[in-house]
Amino acid sequence: MKVTRHFVRVGEREVHYRRAGNGPPFVLFHVSPQSSAFVIPGMLPLADSHTLIALDTPGYGESDALPNSAPTMVDYADAALETLGALGLGKVPIFGSHTGANIAVELARRAPDRVAALVLDGLSLNSPEVSHDRIASYAPTFQPSADGAHLAWAWQHTRDQLIFWPWYEPHRPNRLKQGIKGPDFVHDVVLAKMAATRYWLGYRAAFGHDYRDALYNCPAPIYFVTPNADVHTAVERSLKGLPAHMYFIDTDHDGQVDAIAGALAKVKGDPSVGPAAKPGHRRRLYRDFVTVGDGQRLVRRGGVESGKPLVLLHGAMGTSAALVDRATALAAKRPVLAIDIAGNGDSDPLPKKDADLAAYAEDVRAAIKAAGVDGYDLYGEGLGAILALEVARQGNAGKVILDRPERPDAATRKDMIANVAPIIDARFDGGHFLTAWHMLRDAALFYPWYRTTADAVRDIEPDVEPAMLQARLLPWLKGRLTYGDYVRAALRADPDKLIAATRQPCLVFGTAGDLIADHARRVASALTQSTLLETERVAPPTTAMTQFL
């Protein structure tokens, strides 16, 4: 069953959700600090009879955070209710797991006419003393550190959450009767935790809220489908004076989906999914997914409505997120469109393994067309500049900006193809996070990043501030298994042939003193129409780009 990804605008926020299936809607709320990516796969057997709509909670996954600094469960529930309205949903059954269960119950309290049934997994019901302890200890804050130590902390914290309940009391009575899923699963949870906007907020809102009145007064049927081994099962079943509208379904993990299917068979909600509110043109950059073939590509778009659009392409170990500041500045004068290249960030990979650069360029052009853009200028950064030349060669591009283009000689290209973009396999101890951190850090210090000798030093002001590295690391790691395909495709292409085929006017940026500044000079001198501009700063000046365009 195909799962598609979407954004819907709710006020000034972007809410991300996944969708699959056909039939009446069934809304899914996920565990903290995860996202819809974790809840929808296990529910896919239900997609034959229902349209599954899995929301990313505000501040988690790809959904924008709420504006308040300490949101309560009421705030999360109200935000979920607004999203249901933006998606055109009426009265629907709602599934919630752990924090998601808490949001679902509070939503039912605040808008009982919108809830056909609650299907709950792992609702948190704590005494005031336990709540205070959980709020103080369960979800510590963290800040990125220069040595990457926060990555090791996040890995251990996540593993212990899977071993003990609560994780901070690692004693025999608190040992969970379950194994740890493989390192790929732990990696995904750690990535979600670090990418969340203050991941601890959802936990604290959940632990600090009392749901008993809402449960007893809910007019809709409530089905508890928490597996028997879950730590919350006994707490849920401690509810006294069980009302007739509450049902506990005995199940284990393997039987949970069947239990949910049985509950849904008894529920009548609104039968259809209304049209989602489509975002209109916005000056501020917003995210969207476009369909290319059988996959989706993430684009960031916005800017003024008039003028020729500028399409921005990122380089190696990057995504469109790394171009947001540049795109935002340029959006003051024109429409902009920044793309996660296939297999990078949130974009699906190309269907063909070992595709050449021409295939990546064709995919970029298809994404541009799917975004409704016809006729555009191009910006490419690093190896993205080589991709921009191939897109321009294939046609329909106007002017081209080449920002620190990479043009290594044939021997260096061969060496880089073998070494510059290794697959980042998840390790049981989380060591791969530190590997990726230092790959990204060294890319600002050496060229290529893995050649840490004196002749590879980049004599520039290094941009290695921890928060910046963290902001680049997290979206890049989403494509940790496929990002290298794009890099190798760019390196296998012959830059001289692409330069010779370029007829568009080009503005070429280089950084004075940088080891690869000579790359920019050689590219500019070989182009038929080019202007070379060397600057002291790594980031090219927006004014010069605007004047050129």
Question: Would you give an account of this structure?
Answer:
The chain is of the alpha/beta class. Helix content is 36%, strand content 17%. It has 20 helices and 16 strands. It has helices at 36-43, 73-86, 99-110, 128-137, 149-161, 183-195, 200-207, 212-217, 233-236, 256-264, 324-330, 357-370, 383-394, 410-419, 431-443, 466-477, 483-492, 495-501, 517-526, 542-548; strands at residues 4-10, 13-21, 25-29, 51-55, 92-97, 115-121, 222-224, 246-248, 286-292, 295-303, 310-313, 335-339, 376-381, 397-403, 506-511, 530-535. An eight-stranded mixed β-sheet has the order 1-2-4-3-5-6-7-8, with helices on both faces. Strands 9-10-12-11-13-14-15-16 form an eight-stranded mixed β-sheet, with helices on both faces. Strand 3, helix 1 (36-43) and strand 4 form a beta-alpha-beta unit. Helix 4 packs antiparallel against helix 7 (200-207). The longest helix is centred in the N-terminal third of the chain and has 14 residues, at 73-86. The protein is globular and about 85 Å long. The mean pLDDT is 93.
